[in-house]
Amino acid sequence: MKNSRTSNYDMATDSNVVLKKKETVGETLQTHDDQEEYSFRLSSTTEACSANHDRPPPPSSSSSPHNSAVWEEQPASSTQTWDPPSSPLSKSPWSSHVAPESSYAYTGLMGSLVREEGHIYSLAASGDLLYTGSDSKNIRVWKNQKEFSGFKSNSGLVKAIIIAGERIFTGHQDGKIRVWKISGKDPSVHKRIGTLPTFTAKIKSSFNPTKYVEVKKNQNAIWIKHVDAISSLSLSEDKSLLYSASWDKTIKVWRISDSKCLESISAHDDAVNSVIAGFDGLVFTGSADGTIKVWRRELQGKGTKHFFSQTLLKQECAVTALALDPYATVLYGGSSDGLVNFWERAKFLSHGGVLRGHKLAVLCLATSGNLVLSGSADTNICVWRREEEEHSCLSVLSGHTGPVKCLAVEEDHKGTDVRGGDRQYTAYSGSLDKSVKIWRVSAHPWEPTPVPDAPPQPQHQAESQNQPQRIPSVQSFSSSIGRGKASQRRK
To answer: What stretches of residues are WD repeats (predicted)?
Structure first.
């Protein structure tokens, strides 16, 4: 059994990984001046992995332990300081640089939303709206790549955003889930309508000794409350339940209709980095303890009960992200070793293979149609296409100067079908370089235009054409396009 994280680890001894020192239960979570919070938790047993680089940009001080980071921040002289306004409705620090739409299908950068408030940790897309969360207290809303609205939270570091109709749920570093509702009269107005757990529920539980559970040796807390950062949120298939994952090693189940916490599951031996509600009442969790577990939901009267079903993956490196394809046929799991494993529903969740496209930790995953996007600490985004039982890498999107922390992708139904059957997608990527980039992604692999009557090529030249191609994209960013198969099937 893996050893859980201990408070003796303030900093990893290799791979430039700094581990957050565990705070005592009941203390207020704070962002320390000398150490910023990280986007996923790494277990002390995963320090040997060389790809654990999910962290904010390094300080400029030469004495900082982060100086050997895998990417460099722009010089301080090249950026302008900005005093954040007290209201999110004040003039936004974002500047939109969106390229005009082209009349042909391509894969590449469309534009950027650049901010000076902080690092981007979460985003969610719904139709023509984009919600972005960061380590500031403001949650921005964008429409057609222009600022549409915004709302302010009492807590910084918005780590997760999920949209459920007219309600928006945001998970925060302080262990709380905040609930927002879009105004029926003015869609640009968002009002906070509650917090999970509710104040009333916390008061009632605090006076009932049976509501307390041990969260640390000789320390107890009410079971309906997360005692560490929220790392991930997910909705059940029927949108009636909300699942929250936390660094406190638990996942909690909330009934949306009355904001009641139905269940708390001690899911892992270390921080839970991702949760996703799947098909047939199954729930999947990924953790810093290196495992992916499956939980089965059963109805019990007016409530629910989740039972452990099986462990899909057990490894040394942390599991950092999970995603299901839109058809609920394939589960994807990203890890701090840079790999993406996948399991197939049609084969009773048997291991389907491994996608190898990153040099550093995979930090986020997103799916749409038959595409899978993986964002990494190596600053790149790999675009994969699934056909039957094979995955091929269509392109590698380059442009960020920091780790890619969050992704969202939606099919562009207005996209031009110039190839006959080619689908177009719009992808959004948030990074610790303080920017959100907008990409146009084609589901058709890029192919060079054939030259008529081309003379026979030497063998070494013909082989070079099978290597990933690089085509220019707007604003001097680029997308490297590859045609080769990039998945490794299990033998």
So the answer is: 223-264, 265-295, 312-344, 355-384
Eight-state DSSP code of residue 257:
T
Q: Name the residue among 368, 372, 370 with its Cα closest to residue 354.
A: 372
The token pair that represents 483 in the structure block: 């045609």
pLDDT of residue 180: 94
Alpha helices in 49-159 (DSSP H): none
Per DSSP, 461 falls in state: H
pLDDT value for 292: 98
Confidence of residue 251 (pLDDT cuts 50, 70, 90): very high
Residues in Cβ contact with 307 at an 8 Å cutoff, skipping those fewer than 6 apart? 295, 296, 298
> Taking the C-alpha atoms of 389, 404, 428 and 470 in order, what is their torsion angle to the nearest 10 degrees?
-70
Q: What distance in Å separates the CA atoms of residue 304 and residue 295, rounded to the nearest whole number?
A: 12
Beta strand ranges found along 424-477 (DSSP E): 424-431, 435-442, 469-472
**Each residue's pLDDT tens digit, 123-174:** 999 888 999 998 887 899 998 878 888 888 877 689 999 999 889 999 999 9
User: CA 123 to CA 168: how far, in whole Å?
Assistant: 12
Per DSSP, 55 falls in state -
Q: Which pair of tokens denotes residue 259?
A: 């904001």
Decide if 314 contacts 290 (C-beta within 8 A): yes
Distances 441 to 256, 427, 437 between C-alpha atoms, Å: 34, 7, 12
Handedness of CA 409, 411, 416, 421 (dihedral sign): positive
Give me 58's structure tokens: 């390094």
257: which 2 tokens?
């209709």
Give the pTM.
Answer: 0.76
**What are the helix (H) ranges across 368-441?**
none
b/e burial code for range 204-233 (CB count within 10 A of at least 16 → b):
ebeeeeebeeebeeeeebbbbbbbbbbbbb
- Please report how many Cα atoms fall inside a 13 Å half-sphere around the Cα of residue 114, on the Cβ side: 13
Radius of gyration of the chain (CA): 22
